[in-house]
């Protein structure tokens, strides 16, 4: 992986940050320099660790460049959280400019969105999809493992195609160790529903690993297109 990769979700709280860390770990393993940009961190108080800090914890301190552009105290969509806090919103252009600055000095920049693809940054309705279009960057979609994921994954992929934004594939953000019937079927069905390849499956609980075992295991969770050596199963 080189260049810019945007990481979005087909929902929220489905493993985006851990997936971002896994991609970062694979890039670091290949000798790449990596930056992680979180445009809008919500629901975290000033001074508390956010998603960028969590990626840093999982891949090892000081191994990535982490940047957070805005932080809003309430756990809401960025535009809503900014309005309620009386704070300035971010625009897609600001996020793209910050990404391009990081890309000038790093092999890979991972831009982790907040929630789903069409969550708004500002009153004009700009989203991570707009950022990806400005940067001509693909979007990696993190999906749930169980019931409901076929619909949300298909809708997210349809939104990408409507905006002429490339999809880098889908990763199951938290696959149970003992998957049930729905989880097993979804591994085969997700690509057919969404029209995007399934390029990884992160095991449930991966975010609780210490840095060294996380870095060692991450390549086995992701396909070669993401710098890994495994495949979803």
UniProtKB/TrEMBL annotation:
Catalysis: reaction(s): (7R,8S)-7,8-diammoniononanoate + CO2 + ATP = (4R,5S)-dethiobiotin + ADP + phosphate + 3 H(+)
Gene3D superfamilies: P-loop containing nucleotide triphosphate hydrolases (3.40.50.300)
Sequence similarity: Belongs to the dethiobiotin synthetase family.
Species of origin: Streptomyces tubbatahanensis
InterPro entries linked: DTB_synth_BioD, P-loop_NTPase
Pathway: Cofactor biosynthesis; biotin biosynthesis; biotin from 7,8-diaminononanoate: step 1/2
CDD domains: DTBS
GO molecular function: dethiobiotin synthase activity
Cofactor: Mg(2+)
Sequence positions that bind substrate: 42
NCBIfam families: bioD
Protein name as annotated: ATP-dependent dethiobiotin synthetase BioD
Role description: Catalyzes a mechanistically unusual reaction, the ATP-dependent insertion of CO2 between the N7 and N8 nitrogen atoms of 7,8-diaminopelargonic acid (DAPA, also called 7,8-diammoniononanoate) to form a ureido ring.
Oligomer status and interactors: Homodimer.
One Pfam family in the UniProt entry: AAA_26
Binding residue positions for ATP: 13-18, 51, 112-115, 173-174
EC number: 6.3.3.3
